[in-house]
Records
---
Amino acid sequence: MSNPTGQPDLFSKFDDVIALREGLLASGVEDPFSLVMERVISPTVAMCNGRETILLGTYNYMGMTFDPDVVAAGKYALDNFGSGTTGSRVLNGTYSGHKDVEAALREFYAMDHAMVFSTGYQANLGVISTIAGKGDYIVLDIDSHASIWDGCKLGDAEVVPFKHNDIEAMEKRLKRIPEGAGKLVILEGVYSMLGDVAPLKEMVRIAKENGAMVLVDEAHSMGFIGENGRGVVEDQGIIDDVDFIIGTFSKSVGTVGGFCVSNHPKFEILRLVCRPYVFTASLPPSVVATAATSIRKLMHAGNKRAHLWENSRTLHGGLKALGFQLGTDEPQSAIISVIMPDLERGAGMWEALLKEGLYVNLARPPATPANMTLLRCSLCAEHSAEQVQTIISMFERAGKTAGIL
Ligand SMILES: Cc1ncc(COP(=O)(O)O)c(C=O)c1O
């Protein structure tokens, strides 16, 4: 396809996606990727299309977004430090709040260093591309998050993917790397599409035996998994063996931002050499204030963690009993994925749930593994036991309406 000047249209590469989207909307289903939250009532309820809707598709795992201390900290910072920093962390963009949230992260993880980025996406982009460059090797799970893949691309290292959660495949790839080359293994604690946990203990042991540094993205486990909410690395007893933990404020912490924590003695140099840290404005004061308050509260959130596990077990058991096909045999995290036969029926089921008053994520390739269409349910520690029962009933009715059950 060309534009009126006869030049190639740079948008022609999107024609397949445009056709897929138009085909879906032509079937009469509501656009699953344009839903508007008209008003947010609590961490678990919002108004969508004028209807009160239970939220089961947010990353608000620990329900901190309306915590009164968190909200008060944000308001105080807004009043006393203004709406934004208008500058990079290495120039005018480091306020006392940025130092404080980094201190909160060091306390939370009991680690020596913490560096905050404007998003989790940028934390992966920045750390990976800066530490693994030309001539180095990155060995990573094929189902890694887009921000990990993009970090690899930006850094120009040799990228060697292995089959999802396959320990042997990872070891084979590591052993083939030329002697003397720098090696980085990248893993995630919880994989967000199916909600499955990685066998990190074994993988980290093998990575270390083969002389690799290890980076673990704990975006979907922070706050929830592990005795102190430090993630799968804590739960599997290997937090001291990993070199870098990447995380985000956009999930359990309940705001926006990303970070890396580490005990590496030279870690602080990243503040001067990591381009996605240097060449962007720092987070607004209100955001870092809410994050610091939330992180410190998450250190003492054992009861919330226990309730969230209860919710996860109840929903998993309830959906399985109804006959839905789920992403994992047992509940492994706060994410429960329901596998749909195809995109059309997945979108139909998504819409039927919305009409019931339930919002879940519709996930499809390329975000999903093995070309799957998923209805991704993310539980919150603020979902009551009654809400979880209501959700199961909604799935039953919607499943029948959409012809899935
Ligand atoms: C595994 C993983 N890493 C990083 C990110 C990026 O986080 P953020 O929303 O802070 O950019 C996500 C977001 O979904 C994620 O799932």
---
Amino acid sequence: MKLTDFDGEEPEEEKETLEDKLKDKDLQEVVDMIANCEKCRLHENRTNPVPGEGPENAAIMLIGEGPGENEDEQGRPFVGSAGKKLDECLEKAGINREKIFISNTVKCRPPDNRDPYRDELRACHPYTERIVEIIDPKVIGLLGRVPTKRFLGKESITKVRGQKIENNGRVYIPMFHPAALRYKASREEQLVKDLRTLLDQI
Ligand code: SF4
């Protein structure tokens, strides 16, 4: 009689990853999952998660860093002072905000507006990826250093801003975060220019 190879405990059933769980989910289901998410410490202090907003068939998507105080209160992206600046720049670039989809690398507000930690970015990334998959935009604008590092592995926003960069079959254009415009007036012009480049791709 052949002895069995197995001589111990039954192997643990393979755990279903967040990516597995998200695979067939539609946008509303992803939004619902985010609302109940406790995958990282940022859920502890959130008032409202901010999954993102915009039409599901948007050709342009913008991805920022994370919700601030106003966003946390309203559950909507870019509604505070940076959002106001973004709206102005979108208007100058000839882009209608209603027609684009806007989200963030983390969906819950980091305390005191600190940068999201690496483990928080990693934890939230499957949601962003699934949202990108569902929206399937022609081009994605990365607003600032955090999403640029997350999606393209580039450390310096100033070196890559305005460039069209292809990665995994998607087209990205890194650009300044609207909150960074207050440090240098010339950055506003650059953001408008980069938003126009975004528009040229569709
Ligand atoms: S930031 Fe993302 S991963 Fe963290 S709790 Fe919120 S939804 Fe979940």
---
Amino acid sequence: MPHARGCPNMDDFDELLSSLTPREDNEAIASYQNTTAVACPSCEEPFDDMVVCKQEFTSLNLDFEMDLCTTINDGNVVLFTHK
Ligand SMILES: [Zn+2]
């Protein structure tokens, strides 16, 4: 799967989504598990989970510490977690 270097090409978002396993979907977030080691669109390292933030990013309780890559898709903040 081709990846734009440095600048994520979220035209591939639907394709990316289809490769991931849905885990959680509520009014605040939708999270997906990367069970197939898909490369992160930002850093090209395989990520663990993708989280789509449906609300203001600041309203989220991010009570975990890990490396994150972020991007924007369709106005929503999208997080890619790296453990
Ligand atoms: Zn990344």
